[in-house]
Write a structure and sequence with these properties.
With 303 residues, the protein is of the alpha/beta class. It has a domain at 2-152 and 185-211 and 273-287: 3-Layer(aba) Sandwich (Rossmann fold). The protein contains 11 helices and 13 strands. The chain has helices spanning 11-23, 55-62, 86-104, 124-136, 157-168, 187-198, 217-229, 243-254, 258-266, 279-283, 290-302; strands at residues 2-6, 27-32, 45-49, 73-76, 108-114, 143-148, 151-152, 171-175, 181-182, 185-186, 205-209, 215-216, 234-238. The strands form 4 sheets. Strands 3-2-1-4-5-6-11 form a 7-stranded parallel sheet, sandwiched between helices. Helix 8 (243-254) crosses helix 9 (258-266). The longest helix is centred in the first third of the chain and has 19 residues, at 86-104. It is globular, with a radius of gyration of 19 Å. The relative contact order is 0.14.
Amino acid sequence: MNIAIIGARGCVGSALVKKLITTTGHTIIASYRPEEGVGVAHERVVWRLVDLGSDEGTERFLSAQNSIGPADVLVYLVHSLDDRKFEAMDRAFADRTGRIARKVGVKQIIYLGGIIPKKELLSQHLRSRQETGKRLGAHGVPLAEVRASILLGPCSVSYRMVYWLSRRFPVVIMPRWSTTKCSPIALEDAVAMVAALIERRSDGHEIFEIGSETMGYDELIMRSGAVVHGRQSRVIYVGWFPLAIIAWVVQTISGVPRHIAAALMGSLKNDSMIERNRFIEVVGRAPRPVDETLRELAQVMAK
């Protein structure tokens, strides 16, 4: 099959390209933007510029205008957090992509989004993740929507915030809402899930929640501290802590831009724990334990 990946130069996309090269015989149509440049060179990887801001640019990427023919499966990994108007941009990109995918004959879309809590007022970030899935699936192409919480990987912005908070601050001052629940999962497991779904046809708009273990965000920081320092980070809870200050601290210690940190940290007020974990059902094995993943990542980050 021809597998198109929009967002192929991102954290998940880069790992997915490498996995598909080594484990499948599929041809990969991988997107890049002018400021990014192309990624890994391989005979089965075709790098194409993509312009999701226009019908023509999107269709050119997905259609038979490519020398290898149109995409059979589209993996959609776009999230415009680096733009301050990311909600509107995400809606427009997803709607256009779903519509053009239907036009050119894409058989399935796979989208990696976030776990959406029930009966809660969603953060701007999670609201955008949910809306992106709706827009992608609104045009009739079967959609497999993978919903994940925090991805644990060296290139994951969420993990980098956890790592640097636990490394720099053996004692971490956090708001009380940091006890909200999350279900972290290793980046490689999220990639394995997406890769497995390429071989599995979805019926309509199907949701696949994935995660390893469920814990509080504060517990994740403490467990990361145990790996980094040999003892758990201590967390002191305060009733009120301005998000702007947290975002400034995160930018200072990790380099994650404040507006991105604020969007992600704002989502921590929502639980992002799995209700029905479909990882084993699709991949055929259990996800990696969180502590094992944290130990391995701490060694990578320390280099």
